[in-house]
Specification:
2 copies of one chain form a homodimer.
Chain A (H helix, E strand, L loop, with lengths): L3 H15 L7 H11 L6 H12 L6 H22 L8 E2 L2 E2 L1 H5 L1 H20 L5 H15 L4 H11 L6 H26 L4 H28 L2 H4 L5 H4 L5 H32 L7 H4 L5
Antiparallel strand pairs in A: 1-2
Amino acid sequence: MLELKELKEQIDQFLEQQMPSDIDQPTLASSMEYSVNAGGKRLRPALTLTTVQIFGGQLNQNVMKASTAIELLHTYSLIHDDLPAMDNDDLRRGKPTNHKKFGAGMATLAGDGLLTMAFQWLTDNQLPTETQAELTLALAKAAGPAGMVAGQARDIEGEHQNLTLEQLRYLHRQKTGDLLSYAVLAGGIITKQDSTTKNLLADFGAQFGLAFQIYDDLMDVVGTAKQMGKAVHKDASEHKNTYPGLLGIQGAEEQLHLALKQAKKTQKKLVDKTGHDFSAYDQFLAYFKL
Amino acid sequence: MLELKELKEQIDQFLEQQMPSDIDQPTLASSMEYSVNAGGKRLRPALTLTTVQIFGGQLNQNVMKASTAIELLHTYSLIHDDLPAMDNDDLRRGKPTNHKKFGAGMATLAGDGLLTMAFQWLTDNQLPTETQAELTLALAKAAGPAGMVAGQARDIEGEHQNLTLEQLRYLHRQKTGDLLSYAVLAGGIITKQDSTTKNLLADFGAQFGLAFQIYDDLMDVVGTAKQMGKAVHKDASEHKNTYPGLLGIQGAEEQLHLALKQAKKTQKKLVDKTGHDFSAYDQFLAYFKL
């Protein structure tokens, strides 16, 4: 069983080696690779690959390709999110954002290329076609206009409105939760689990995703730019709706603990349902240090 | 056999009815639907559906959904192409461009949503999973960073360079040809043709695509804004590389005739190989009126 740190290394290496052969224009390649190789935490593909391992699956070339596709998609969402027309951020993972380095036109194309390439990687491998098709549909739903993109639209629209807690949860479920939910679910699709198990995996991912977003909001308030590798205190200055903004720091911390408690409950249900050892998920739940 | 005009009506209707249920944010929905329902010629899905019909396939709900996905993808490419950071166009199909109406942030998201939804539609239907997976891979390759997006990157990069005819052809093969090639190929994938036939279909699409791009360049020089529904004489003012710019109007017309001649040759090869009647393709070849 490879742990988070080793998985990150394998994912970094796979992305670096695999990308160049699928891009056929030099500046576009530089721009796409710049952001993908900027060294994120690789949480999403690591969630998929950990889940695959829990069910006894091998991390071969086909599984790596299908599982790292989500990192391409996640990176596209960051590049487009940072654009001048969106959040207008200059710094990401401690480096200039894509459009700061390559211009907004090329950054738009780099994002478009990564999003499209994600679906290429889901199907350009030797996994069974029913697995490829199921992954494609699940990712498209999670990332599309009823998932992540809807959450981003809601985020833009909500900037100058005061959302209720329920509205904020819904926004984040779409914007962050759906993709993290897919990340865990994908491990179940790849290893062909039954639908009850797949639903539990998706639940765990959604609960992890909620915790993740609350934590991110909290860090924007209490973290430093150096810790985060990006600008902090941006949310308040941009009138973003956040958990600490709505509930205060203590209230947001309570919500975070609640989400983690639910995720642990689902983790236990998965053990009961499948008989497998899900303690590898503890590495992800340990992410939230306050 | 439904003809081009009837196909366009069916496609318009299908898109209008199908889209709302897959979008979960009101402004995003308005923005996506605004551009998709702006009434394009629907050439790409019509090429797929015509090919399906030639091989005796039925235009049922599943085939309609998988075949109209390309129109979502094509529309995304227009929205992003028009953005201020790209071509900065104000007018498209005789109406304000998406970002003029919804702002550049929402227009970026509308494009992202349409691109993602295209892959959703390829897999959210009852076609066999091997067909869904084959369509997904073919579309991702055609539209991705070794296809359409690479062509767009090349276009941006080439604006202040003088390209050779060979470089210009390569750019357009990626930017326009690959997607039109996919449009024809998709009809062969849906009706499960052998690989020789699928290669011929892809060839026909690529040759049609080349003719299409030369024609579009010519119309930018000799057409009027009213005919075209968009600004003309833009290419020269933006130092775009074009066929008339490189070869003169007469030279570009010769290249157009050559591309059409090759497409007709491939059309005949398809008849010889399959025994089917490909005269329905004549409707598409009749598009190029000088």
